[in-house]
Amino acid sequence: MKEKEFIARYGGIYEHSPWVAxxxxxxxxxxxxxxxxxxxxxxCVDNASMGRQLALIRAHPxxxxxxxxxxxxxxxxxxEQASAGLDSCSPEEYARFKALNEDYRRKFSFPFVMAVRxxxxxxxxxxxxxxxxxxxxxxxxxxLLEIHRIARMRLIALGAN
Length: 161
Known about the structure:
Blueprint: H1 3-10, H2 19-24, H3 34-46, H4 50-58, H5 66-69, H6 75-83, H7 91-108, H8 121-131, H9 136-158
Helix pairs in contact: 3-9, 7-8
């Protein structure tokens, strides 16, 4: 696969961050399978500057947040949040998500990121509350790990080689 084709196909794997596919494209050959593509793309993120990593984390939407309610999520994010039932929260659950999103952003200056596909709202809320107890460095790393999980799920959904 040519670099331009790779970027066109995989540029959306990392939320609003086509730079990951751009960095990975010259490092992946035509025989690469999902595992190789996922590993190479994750390495590109892990070896990026902290500023670029932070921008990647901040590119993710709040869970059950304003963008979701307004229908402004990317197709992938919308599908992932819907798979967890975040598009059908009760008013009380929306209020809880809103409060947790605000508390989390206040503490860490970036959104809570979790690979939510096939998780329940209860599991997500419990993880949210638990991770609010973490320190900045631990949560920064958690966010990147969750982003890599999301990317792998997106590669699988895309039917990567």
